[in-house]
UniProtKB/TrEMBL annotation:
InterPro entries reported for this sequence: TM_pro_TauE-like, TSUP/Inactive_protease-like
Organism: Mesobacterium hydrothermale
A Pfam family of this chain: TauE
Bilayer topology term: Multi-pass membrane protein
Keywords: Cell membrane, Membrane, Transmembrane, Transmembrane helix
UniProt record similarity statement: Belongs to the 4-toluene sulfonate uptake permease (TSUP) (TC 2.A.102) family.
Compartmental location: Cell membrane; Membrane
Name of this protein: Probable membrane transporter protein
Sequence intervals crossing the membrane: 12-39, 85-104, 110-131, 172-205, 211-230, 242-264
Amino acid sequence: MQIYLPIAEVSVNAFMLLGLGGLVGLLSGMFGVGGGFLLTPLLFFIGIPPAVAVATGANQIVASSISGVLAHLRRKTVDLRMGSVLLIGGLAGAAMGVGLFNYLKSLGQVDLLVQLCYVIFLGIIGALMFVESLRALRKVKRGGPPARKKHFAVHGWPLKVRFRTSGLYISVIPPIFVGVAVGVLSAVMGVGGGFIMVPAMIYLLGMPTKVVIGTSLFQIIFVAAFTTLLHASSSHTVDIMLALLLILGGVIGAQLGTRIAVYLKAEQLRILLAVLVLAVCGKIALDLLLEPAEHYSIAFIKAD
């Protein structure tokens, strides 16, 4: 069933959009990521303009994250205090990111920026997560002793706060910095930022994996919603019809994802996420490097 998207100015299959939303919602519930790192490139691939994909994708991220958080709250695996600290930095970063996005959009360079950001960030983070997860799996298979709680360098910073759900007593400065970075990426790349936040919370802050997923989703809800609002009011690139179809699929997928995650070990979840990140990175890199099927495209710039 073909439908016309007025802001994106293209016709797409409605069932395909529902399926994309469901897939991304599934990832949200399983890994604690908003899923934008996968959704936005997939929207590129089916012909949605990058500017519209980035701004509209944040809507779906909000819906699937809310669905996932509700499931994690029932299991008491959400650190609300840590999530609030991350949110402070996330909102500030989102505001900066939207400003950068609009500036590059006015120069006509936003499409290239978004794709390069995906290749760089997904490649680095995916590779690091994959290597670390393989080491952890090998250690478990050999029957090695459980990993000791590490003393991270950031644990010695000032302004310490006790995060009881995570079992941590650390400075609020590193979580705020993580939040700012995620907020900028959310605005520029149309992602929830979970693919940055989840590794940072595990390897930088030292949070337990079972708490990381729900806490990450909690922060993503507000940052993605704020980003969507800024994009809608400043660049007018949010397509409501596209957002509704993605949201419908995403809410259903998130509930399924949280149920699947219960049956997988932390190391297995991390390595699956790493493989997905690297696969998306490889596809975008190929699209940038390979010769396109059509050498020219007809486009126009709307007058202000």
